[in-house]
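Weekly structure sync, notes
Attendees: PL (lead), two postdocs, one rotation student
Agenda item 3: pending single-chain targets
PL asked that the sequence for the first pending target be pasted directly into the notes so everyone works from the same version. It is reproduced below exactly as submitted, 1075 residues in total.
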Amino acid sequence: MHEIYLAKSENHELRKRLWFEDNKLCDSVSPGKQFAFETHACRTLDDIYALLTELADDPSRSIVSGRPLVASGEKTADRFDDPKTVWWIIDLDGLPRIGSVTETIERHLPCLNGASYVYAYSQKANIVSDDLRVRVIAQVKPTTRAALRAYAEYYSDRIVAFEGLNKKDRPVDPRIYNRNHFIFTARPKLVGIEDPHPVRVFQVDGWCNVRLPELPELVEVTFEAGGSGISSLPFINRETGLPSLLNFGHDDADGHMRGEDASKALGRLKHFMGADAFDAGEGDNPERQRLWEKILEDSGATPTELRKYRDFAQKRWHYAREREDRNVMSVMAHLRDMPVTGLREATKRIRDAISSGMTKPEVTAVSATPGVGKSHIMLEEIKRIVDASEDPFNVDFYVPTNDLAKELWEKCEGMGISSFVEYGRSSKVHDNDSKGGGELACVKAVLNEQIGSVVENVSESLCDNGETQCPLIDTCRHMWQRRLTQHIPVRIRVHNFLSRQMPSEKNPDYRPVHLAVIDESSFVNTLTHTPPAIEIKELTAPRLESDDHAWVLKFAQVTNEGLTIERLRDAGFTPYVFDHLKRAELAQRPRFEITPDDGDEVWTDDMKKLAVVARQIDNFASVWRQLRDCLETGSMNRVRATKDSISLAWHTVIASIPQAEQPTEPKRDVNGDLVMTKDGRPQVQRVRRRICIPAVPTVILSGTMRRNIVEQFVEVDRWVECNVRLHGQTEVRQLTTLRGSKSECLYGSSDQRKKKGERKESRIKDASNLRKWLTGMAEVMPLISFKELKENGVPIARNYGAVAGLNDLEGRDLMIYGRPQPEAAVVELNARAIFCNDEEIPHVHNYPKRWIKLPEQEYAFQCDYHPDDRCEDVRWTICEGEMLQAIHRARPIRHAVTITVASNQVLGLPISEMIHRRERLHPEYKALMNTGILPGGEKVGQREMARLWPTICADGRTSERLWEEVNTTGWGLIRYRRGKTKWSEAKVRRMDEISALGDVEWEWLEPICDEFIIMDELAEADERERMLIVTTRGTEVRPHDRTYNTVNLFDMLDADELGVPAMLPMRKPQNPWAS
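Predicted structure, written out during the meeting:
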């Protein structure tokens, strides 16, 4: 574990030769093929430093990553293994310099802060640019190279993301973890170039150990070298070590996939044997042929495949590219970090959690698989308490939408629970409601939308100000639900009500609450605010008094230098200054007096213009309010500023649930001095709440919530998770070839998209073909996808963002397409609002990727993730969380359904089948497999296939693959044409199938095999007719004077008693596209 392995070349130099040609840096290296291998024991970093210093002047030797298994030979991977090591070698390649070399290293590798390590300059260091190119060696606990590679890629992803580098850049080179990789340690051979680093090796002394980052649970998987985005484990036969042919021995594997598979396996065989042994004898190599035939046999090749591919290695040996599959560390795709449970056990756990959570003022959060019945269990427990209680027991039940509110009200009615839905003024009351069904909750709903910014109290202006009342107050649904529902146990509200301040007990609208229930974690969305950016020039325009405006100008100066808490404090800003500016802004806001007896006519054009001004002033006040809170919390997440604009992000504290009494604090003025009352006592004010601490039992129910997010809004006392296994007969199919991005299906689909540059015709066509395919799939099963697809003619059943809680797709097969993943900047904006009181949210320029292995499958995918855990929780909730919500609309834990996931996004579900070609799912595919006519012959055949099966045969390559798949054994061959056009060919099962080609001239090239004609006719004949058919056909089997072989239809027709011969064609028509 403390060893360093070296390779030595007797006749070649293990270093690069560098020179300039036409002002361009050129390099060459010729290490040779034969090496001697050495092992050096290095117990300390001093030993490492001494060895690297020695190697810097020895071009015959180089470090090799893996442990040599032979004393000498080639550098093929089979000659090395991969033991654990304590020496972590990190190849930093092209890092932007920030300060000294050690400062740059430790900025990008924070695990080395305070640790000891050695670094040596790479071959091209500082030859062309000042970017940092060094190899760092540090001591860690014994670790596999696959794990060390995972740590290196973790830091590489973070550097690319945070520094805004190109996604293809690898600032931490992962190739050095291949076990046969050479790490050149000698100084380069410079031709006409001065060596910028006469001293190449340096040692840094520290005072602590290397602190490796905590990564998610990792599992080792085999990655196909040269592959992209998907890894499969069974490339290698674990028993023999020989390559495997994954697409052989399957009826559904097409010729293209078999050929590609065979080529890759041949490259792996070259790696297995070694290049010299593989190439020996060129086309005549018995050992290579023996191993190839064993690969075919072990892979279960069919007799046809054996005939076709037996000589593949002998014919194609010179095209083989040596392929070394490597191990990588992959994240396991766990939906949750707890074991899967059955539905009955999960139901019991949920009921116990809810029941105990309703007895004392604490918060219970239940995160369980959608469809397990959380809401129903909750209602049963509510009914139990309401029925048993002699005193009133009032429940506030919060749901995402009015449609779900209506659905919940109907459930309550069915269970005998008295309930009502509280609507916002502008909401339409559901039709079955006895209080104004089908109408708006408030007749002044339109006026309500307008006056919020210009009146002190909307309710007093529209309903009752103590002196006058609205003329319709006695019949108003809105007033009824506010003042006459105290006797109804369950009040159902949408999430928007969570930010409403609960009335005091003296208020006539007061309704005591004994239990609060929040259904679905999407309540977070209604409490977060990310308004449009505010321009600095508008914010700094003169409108306040001179002293206050001076503070505004000073703030603009700080913004110009770069907005930070330190700069704000250095400039003299305090929370009291910003609070004063907020109140000064609000004092400028225009106010109007509107009374309840006024109608819509009171809202004049002049008032509308002033309302716009008032809303702008509110926006300015929000800036000062959020800056005040930034200084109080020590976090700048609420505010981001450029030289031209300011963007805000924050969340509102839950206010509608009864909470503990707020503590108070002294009130201070702009200078921080105490504000005194008239009698000389300090004024006090309530401490601003940052989180909800309920004073009544509160239960939060969801299927896809993250604890870290929920706890930014409410303190959770008990967190219960249940991951319920799917129904035993449920199948989940995942289509691996679609990314699921919006651009994939909507590219160039609108004028707006074309204006953004989406004009590439090939991509526009691909997106159009994909929408056609989705349309066909939507005719077979309900489709959940992007809302924009519906606007482009795809009949989706539901769209992302509006699926949580819906039950109308229960028990039905279902397909979801696409991943609703927002851009990284959008995720970060939402994370700033959610974690507005937390440490600063970092900015990444793009998502890095990591391997994620599917559960119970030998596959792994590269998927996007955000390197900040808080942002990753937000991204997951919006993307994978919403996809899981969509899938569980079919209730696959309760019903035997088929779920099709048309995206390569890993969701943590057990996958029954991985599908690599989308056309096989489409209804046209079944029609094609059952067809009786198959056009062929280059472009004409492709056009005919596209005419008959337009969705799945939209391109020539797909047509070619599908042509291979149709079983045409015994079919006839015709040629046909329309008018005087060029003749084309088609395979035909029966003569009446030819009509599918339309009005064409045609003639036989090869007849239909009589065996199949007889079978078609026998299917509809009785016994007497069968004998006649056999006898008649037996005497008419020489059409067109072709030569035939004679066989008997003994097994098929029991014709052995008749002795009737049947004739078969000598050859089968070949694929017109085959080379």
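Discussion points:
- The longest helix spans residues 605-633.
- The first strand starts at residue 3 and ends at 8.
Action: rotation student to compare against the earlier draft before next sync.
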